[in-house]
Write a structure and sequence with these properties.
single chain, alpha/beta, Rossmann fold, 7 strands, FMN_Rdtase-like_dom, EC 1.-.-.-, NAD(P)H-dep_reductase, oxidoreductase activity, oxidoreductase
Length: 178
């Protein structure tokens, strides 16, 4: 049994990326999985001036939680083709604490949006950037048109093709972290 940490890069209280992460967590059986809300880790906007004041305790706490996990499930939201400023700020603080804060972490990387591309630009950006911090992206999945393909009432994927694709990605990830 592996220890898995799951979170979304969004700071929205109604985050569909958080809903996707929660669904994926429910599908990862036989593992110790914790779903976090990054909004519980308040940090000032990163700058060199702020860093001179020391590292936020919340950044150090989140880094510790990541270091104790064997693997991560991250769902990135998309703002204008990239990460949200909220998620970038968290990555900035974590990478200043330890440039390789994701070293040895196998990651299932996902994204979703209300649109047909499913946050694909942010997902592609993440696949290029996160390995710079030591991450090993094991699998990735863009989930398009969230509100058309997911039932929030029943917490289920309603599009059979997407369901099969997502289950395959989850299965591959689970196999890779054994």
């Amino acid at each position: 049994m592996k220890k898995i940490l799951a979170f979304a890069g969004s700071n929205s209280s109604t985050s569909i990326n958080h809903k996707l992460v929660t669904y994926i967590a429910s599908e990862l059986k036989d593992h110790d999985i914790t779903v976090l809300r990054l909004t519980n880790y308040q940090m000032p906007m990163y700058s060199e001036d702020e860093e001179k004041n020391g590292f936020p305790a919340m950044a150090m706490g989140l880094k510790q939680e990541i270091s104790e996990a064997d693997a991560l499930v991250i769902s990135v939201n998309e703002h204008n083709g990239s990460w949200s400023a909220f998620f970038k700020n968290i990555v900035d603080w974590l990478s200043r604490l330890d440039r390789n804060f994701l070293a040895g972490k196998k990651i299932l990387l996902t994204s979703t949006s209300p649109g047909k591309r499913g946050g694909l630009s942010s997902l592609d950006y993440s696949k290029n950037v996160l390995p710079r911090f030591g991450a090993e992206i094991v699998e990735s999945f863009s989930f398009p048109s969230f509100y058309e393909n997911f039932s929030e009432e029943t917490n289920t994927v309603t599009n059979e093709t997407l369901l099969l694709g997502l289950k395959q990605v989850i299965s591959t990830f689970a196999h890779e972290i054994q």
